[in-house]
Design brief:
Number of helices of chain A: 10
Number of strands of chain B: 29
CATH superfamily of the largest domain in chain A: Response regulator
Strand content of chain A: 15-25%
Structural class of chain A: alpha/beta
Strand order of the largest sheet of chain B: 1-4-3-2-29
Number of helices of chain B: 1
Radius of gyration of chain B: 18 Å
Helix content of chain A: 25-40%
Largest sheet of chain A: 5 strands, parallel
Radius of gyration of chain A: 22 Å
Helix content of chain B: under 10%
Largest sheet of chain B: 5 strands, antiparallel
Number of strands of chain A: 14
Oligomer: heterodimer
CATH class of the largest domain in chain A: Alpha Beta
CATH topology of the largest domain in chain A: Rossmann fold
Order of helices and strands of chain A: HEHEHEHEEHEHEHEEEHHHEEEE
């Protein structure tokens, strides 16, 4: 459809809304904030380089979807985006968003997220954490006004471990980066190995000594480095890498000394979403997203879409725009949201983490979806992923 | 288009000759890009017809001369001549057609187009598009009231059943149901509209006059997690006493007493059961099992599965000759 055609369609939508409903009252207005940082992280692969609107593009699509539903219910959703620059005060920015928005989608580092959550608690503003996978935000540092839409590191690690164990690749060579996040991911992978019966035969650390991610003669050097780095390992089935910092993992596939598959931060990767995911009606949202943004939909886009849809779902079920009413519904036992994962997604009531299946992808295809068959749980098989109720350190008021 | 269809889509005959008394069932195979033809006397596949990409919604024309099949990835509906088993024409649906329904006269077709939030209205005989109706996000389920006056469309992400006046083509009411409504079916006496919600795992029963949900059918299968119960296709017997509901990855058909709205029996069928169709004499109910690539035949009176027929890859929809 051409641009003019699209505009005509929008016109038709608003006309039909008026004629079918003849609603005299103004629509319920529901504002959603979006708080993020300017700039994107550098990735080893050019293909994986996130777009400038990574994340918010998903929220924008959800607002459009919410509004399509909203025109039948006389509800109207708006999104207010704030991009923090270096030195900007996140609390100040969040407070000004909170003047019109009862919900703020947050793509913030963990410490900043906590500061913002604490500053907005009195006001009753709810944060929807779309960007941080730190387990501690759902455990010892959990907050009653933060809903976590992003999966945790432990959920991602468990999803991968279940598959590797199912595949009988139980001897792991663990290679972790030297940054804090890499170490946290390595912790989660160690925990997963213990839980699901894999064995880490050796651990190695890949020190980040600095240097550019892109050089004109990069491949030659890497081709010599990586085999040597993975030489003399004890017998193993799969190399599991923890490199959230994008320093080395993408260099590992096809370059290990022994011919072994790579998983974790490269090779077979656990994620909440992938542009290749096409099951359970996902093609429909992938198509809508590409049409709107002329690029593929990332995990962060999907997490933000889900966050904004959670608010939309609560508004249509409660027929309310009052944040307190909406949040009570979201925390209630009747809440669930559909997000193209083949089953309804619900919240863990002990820490407000969204339960969700995790995709295992290779950058081209979806290889599998965890939880794997046979990993059983008395409440929900989705709770075989991540920290479960009996182990939680979270105590919500 | 006609020529292309005839020239480039050959028919694969797997068997010939069927008794004249038998009905013929057409099954759309979503992944196989084929339609399997089943003889209901011998319960065998008598032909496999190559069609366009991702065939799902499938229905006989009222006169029985054609089978219409929505081929979503080709953005069209193909018409199979039931005599020659050849694709002879296409209908101008919108993008990614999935399910459709026709009016009582068999002249007008209403198509749900998942990709652009519309229902397309088509004149079947003229093969012409008459207009579009704006509905919610991801329109899917389609049915028409027995009096032909009301068209129902369900939208999967908006979670509504939209009531559309077929004369004015205006949405007159919207009823919120549970998440991901996939299929809608009227009782023959028009007193109730049943809508299945795949992700929520329920079937909502709607009063079509009051436009209100008056009850819900819920399901519980011992030993099966509730997330696996995902209702999709619905079939209601002509006496309106019994409903059959396909439960997707629960691999079962629920038999529901429509008066009490309680499940009386679960019939084990193949994997990921999608849609269903009764034979016109209502002796049998055929259901498509997506993951196990087969069709289960249910004896309606005995409420028993009597046969399993292997078809193409990922069978999805089924229609039976009038």
């Amino acid at each position: 459809m051409g641009n003019a055609g699209f505009r005509a369609l929008i016109g038709a939508i608003s006309l039909s809304a008026v004629s079918t409903h003849a609603l005299a009252a103004d629509p319920l207005e529901i504002g959603i904030g979006y708080l993020r940082h300017a700039g994107v992280k550098q990735t080893l692969s050019l293909v994986m380089q996130p777009a400038d609107n990574n994340g918010i593009a998903g929220a924008e699509l959800a607002i459009e979807d919410n509004n399509t539903t909203g025109r039948f219910l006389n509800q109207h959703f708006t999104l207010h985006d704030v991009r923090l620059k270096d030195g900007d005060d996140a609390v100040k920015a969040a407070s000004s968003l909170a003047e019109h928005d009862g919900f703020i989608i947050a793509d913030l580092p963990p410490d900043e997220l906590l500061k913002v959550a604490d500053a907005l608690r009195e006001r009753g503003t709810v944060l929807l954490d779309a960007g941080s996978i730190d387990d501690r935000l759902r455990e010892q540092d959990c907050r009653g006004n933060v809903v976590h839409v992003a999966p945790t590191r432990s959920m991602l690690a468990d999803a991968l471990a279940q598959y590797l164990v199912w595949k009988q690749w139980k001897r792991w060579l663990l290679v972790a980066g030297s940054h804090d996040n890499d170490k946290l991911y390595a912790d989660a992978l160690r925990r997963a190995a213990t839980r699901f019966g894999a064995k880490i035969v050796q651990e190695k650390t890949f020190e980040d000594t600095g240097g550019a991610r892109r050089t004109d003669s990069g491949v030659t050097l890497i081709q010599r480095q990586m085999p040597v780095f993975t030489q003399q390992a004890p017998a193993y089935d799969v190399l599991v890498s923890a490199d959230e910092s994008e320093v080395f993992a993408a260099y590992l596939p096809y370059r290990t000394w022994d011919p072994r598959p790579v998983a974790g931060s490269a090779g077979l990767m656990p994620t909440s979403w992938d542009a290749a995911h096409d099951q359970w009606g996902a093609v429909q949202i992938q198509n809508r997203f590409v049409k709107l943004n002329a690029r593929h939909m990332t995990a962060l886009d999907m997490q933000a879409w889900t966050a904004a849809r959670i608010v939309g779902e609560a508004a249509s079920r409660t027929n309310s725009s009052d944040p307190k009413t909406l949040f009570a519904f979201i925390k209630g036992k009747d809440f669930s949201v559909a997000a193209f994962k083949g089953q309804r997604l619900t919240l863990r009531d002990w820490n407000l983490q969204l339960r969700q299946p995790i995709l295992l992808v290779d950058g081209r295809m979806v290889v599998s979806v965890s939880p794997q068959e046979g990993f059983l749980h008395q409440v929900s098989e989705l709770d075989t992923l991540g920290v479960d109720r009996p182990e939680t350190k979270c105590k919500l008021p | 288009m006609w020529r292309r269809g005839l020239m480039s889509l050959p028919v694969l005959w797997l068997a010939t000759a069927s008794p004249a008394s038998a009905y013929v069932a057409y099954i759309s195979n979503e992944k196989g890009n084929t339609v399997s033809v089943i003889d209901t006397d011998t319960w065998t596949v008598t032909a496999t017809i190559k069609v366009g990409q991702r065939p799902r919604g499938i229905e006989f024309t009222r006169d029985g001369k054609f089978v219409m099949v929505a081929v979503g990835d080709d953005d069209t509906i193909q018409m199979i001549d039931t005599k020659t088993k050849q694709i002879v024409d296409t209908l101008p649906s919108g993008p990614d057609p999935e399910l459709f329904t026709q009016d009582a006269t068999g002249k007008i077709l209403y198509v749900a187009n998942e990709n652009d939030n519309t229902v397309t209205v088509i004149d079947i005989e003229k093969r012409a598009r008459l207009g579009d109706i704006q509905v919610g996000v991801e329109p899917e389920g389609m049915t028409i009231s027995p009096d032909g006056k009301t068209l129902i469309n369900t939208s999967e992400t908006t979670n509504m059943a939209h009531f559309i006046d077929t004369t004015t083509r205006q949405v007159v009411a919207n009823v919120l149901v549970d998440s991901r409504p996939r299929f809608a079916e009227y009782k023959h006496d028009s007193s109730e509209l049943w809508v299945s919600s795949e992700i929520a795992g329920t079937v909502s029963i709607i009063d079509p006059v009051k436009h209100a949900v008056t009850g819900k059918v819920t399901f519980a299968i011992p030993g099966l997690r509730s997330e696996a119960i995902q209702p999709v296709g619905i079939g209601i017997t002509r006496d309106d006493k019994t409903a059959f509901i396909a439960l997707g990855p629960a691999n079962r058909i629920a038999v529901v007493d429509t008066a009490s709205r309680a499940v009386t029996k679960y019939l084990l069928v193949g994997q990921r059961v999608w849609h269903m169709a009764f034979t016109p004499d209502e002796k049998y109910l055929l259901v498509t099992n997506g993951v196990s690539n087969d069709v289960s035949v249910i004896d309606v009176a005995a409420q028993k599965v009597i046969k399993t027929i292997q078809v193409g890859e990922l069978p999805w929809g089924v229609t039976i000759s009038p």
